[in-house]
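Async update (no meeting this week)

Hi team, since we skipped the sync, here's where things stand on the single-chain job. The sequence we agreed to prioritize is pasted below, unchanged from the tracker. I ran it this morning and attached the output directly underneath so nobody has to dig for it. Comments welcome in thread, and please keep replies under the output.
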Amino acid sequence: CNILVCIAILMAAAATDIVGKVWAIFFPIMAFVVGGFEHCVANMFYIPVGMMAAQNPAYVAKAQEAYGLTAEQIQGLTVLHSLNNFIPVTIGNILGGMVFVGIPCYFIYKKKWQKWHEESKNA
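Output:
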């Protein structure tokens, strides 16, 4: 999902007006949400909120009714479970953003940046 987040950031940075920035971030973020991908920063909110909700019997009953979850599944949401989620999701987000967005952008703009740097140094 971090591929989509990084693309949204790059397109928003390239847009020159507010409407362009909004449209630039809308579609990649929409694809990230609709795809059901996990993002480590989003999970830093959702997992603790789920852990707190698991302590409320009314929420547990509603989750069981709406999603067919068992009480054991709901009580299985613990700090250890969240680490089992955070570690692979964070590694995937770092690699996805770096390998598929950051490194290609570096190689695409490397010569242009070196030329600009030399021109500004000589001026």
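Quick observations from my side:
Residues 38 and 123 are 47 Å apart (CA to CA).
The helical segments are 2-14, 18-34, 40-53, 57-67, 71-75, 79-122.
Reply here if anything looks off.
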